[in-house]
Amino acid sequence: MAGLQADSPLPTALTVHNQSRVLEIAFSDGKAFRIPFELMRVYSPSAEVQGHGPGQEVLQTGKREVNLVELEPIGNYAVKPVFSDGHESGIFSWDYLYYLGNEQDRLWEDYNRRLQAAGADRESPMVVAGGHSCASH
């Protein structure tokens, strides 16, 4: 998880738009982003999505229609979203939300490239792997 850097922009406004499925966030440096819930979900900083090290990332599929059920503040540095598919283990620092907003074009390209390489698309159902799971509750 990206930590909060001392010189990082801080959020000045945060709005959840459930109908359009985007998190709108404005920062103290004047930048503002509309981050789709789907992008947040597929790039969740949780171990369930990112794995426990490089190369262990789990490709997320079937998240196009995911909604944000709850957005819980975590101290003064982050929020913890609860998604409609039950995912709730990712803590999104302000730095990480800024990164998602600022890099979303590149992140979408990378995500679509990974989906294509896996023979999947954004509509493909999520493949549930058997075996162990990460106990991060």
Describe the structure concisely for a colleague.
With 137 residues, this protein is of the alpha+beta class. It has helices at 37-42, 47-50, 94-102, 104-117, and strands spanning 11-17, 22-27, 32-36, 68-74, 78-83, 92-93.
Tell me the span between the first and last alpha carbons.
16 Å
How large is the radius of gyration?
Answer: 15 Å
Approximate strand percentage? 15-25%
Average pLDDT reading:
88
Q: Spatial order of the strands in the main sheet?
A: 1-2-3
Number of strands: 6
Structural class: alpha+beta
Low-confidence stretches: 128-137
**Share of helix, binned:** 10-25%
Structure overview:
The protein is an alpha+beta fold and 137 residues long. The protein is 24% helix and 24% strand. The chain is built from 4 helices and 6 strands. The chain has helices at residues 37-42, 47-50, 94-102, 104-117, and strands at residues 11-17, 22-27, 32-36, 68-74, 78-83, 92-93. The chain has a 3-stranded antiparallel sheet. A 3-stranded antiparallel sheet has the order 4-5-6. The longest helix is centred in the last third of the chain and has 14 residues, at 104-117. The chain is globular and about 40 Å long. The two termini are 16 Å apart. The model is unreliable at 128-137 (pLDDT under 50).
